[in-house]
Amino acid sequence: MRKLRTLFLLIGLTPMLAIGSDSPAEKPSPTDVIEMLKAGNARFVAGETNHPNTDAARLALAGSSNQGNYAYATVLSCSDSRVPVERIFDAGVMDIFVIRIAGNVADVDQLGSIEYGVNHVHTPVTLVLGHTQCGAVAAVTAAVKGAELKLERNIPPLVDNIIPAVERTLDDLSDADEAEQVARAVEENVWQSIRDMLYESPALREAHKTGKTMIVGAIYDIATGQVNWLPNERVDVLLAEVEADSDRPMNPYGDDN
Questions:
Q1: How many CB atoms lie within 10 A of CB 64?
Q2: What pTM did the predictor assign?
């Protein structure tokens, strides 16, 4: 296993670190980064975007510098074409380390990417960004309610992380119409991804606890462009629940066995 990890580092991570130093540059505080993201989204909603860091000089800088000296947020978002992450925050090249996956789920591939963003790109904020009218959440909601969906073989295991969020939603909103259920499930799914991050990744758990990164959640409204931020107190509630679970993984660098 150690040889495999060493090989992975050599062939997978080293090229990403080859340019510049892996030592973190001084970054804005997590609170300042969130204000930057909010300000960028406000410009986007108002139609007053600046399109920063997209000129030839920035591209040349990207070709000669380490992204870890510049990127200020890691964002886990949905693959949906209606959620163009950099645009909705009026951000540019080397500003945001983005992981996109249907349903913004936090499974092993996404967790590894987020760990890289936090511990090697040194992003002060880690955002899980859900969005209204999420097709993945809607499909899982329909399936949990008994609909027979004909899905290609790789889709069900992709979105099965969403099931707990949908089940909690249906327990709370059993009599609501499906649109309301899906809207609530979208939010619950953000919390589920954050919980999965905190449970499955000791590295991310420690980074959040020590203030290396601040894990936050938000919902993007595809009809208005507005990002609505979720109460961050629940992240600490989820962290406490995870830390009370004696079965949680503890070794950030490999199997606990």
A1: 8
A2: 0.91
Q: What integer pLDDT is reported at residue 23 of this predicted model?
A: 52
The DSSP call for residue 29 is -
The encoded tokens of residue 120 equal 């090697």
Helix, strand, coil content of the chain in percent (nearest 5): 50, 10, 40
170-178, Cβ contacts within 8 angstroms, sequence gap of 24 or more:
170/141, 170/144, 170/145, 178/141, 178/142, 178/145
Q: What is the mean pLDDT of the chain?
A: 92
The structure tokens listed for 221 are 């409204």
Confidence class for position 153, pLDDT limits 50, 70, 90: very high
Check: CB of residue 43 under 8 Å from CB of residue 49: yes
- d(Cα 197, Cα 33) in Å, to the nearest integer? 20
The one-character DSSP state at 10 is I
Question: Which residue from 125, 124, 122, 126 is spatially nearest to 16, judged by alpha carbons?
Answer: 122
* Contact (Cβ atoms closer than 8 angstroms) between residue 136 and residue 82: no
CA distances from 242 to 113, 185, 211, 236 (A): 21, 21, 17, 10
Tell me the C-alpha distance between 176 and 182, whole Å: 10
